[in-house]
Amino acid sequence: MQTENLAVLEWQLLFSIARFGSCHVAFVTKHTSIDPAHGSRAASALEKKGLIARSEDAGNKRRKLMSLTPLGVETFERIWPKARQVTSHLTDRLNPDDFAEFKRLLDLLNGGVGLAPVTGATQGQHDHTPIEMGEVAAQA
Question: What are the strands, taking DSSP E only, across 4-108?
Answer without folding.
Answer: 52-57, 60-68
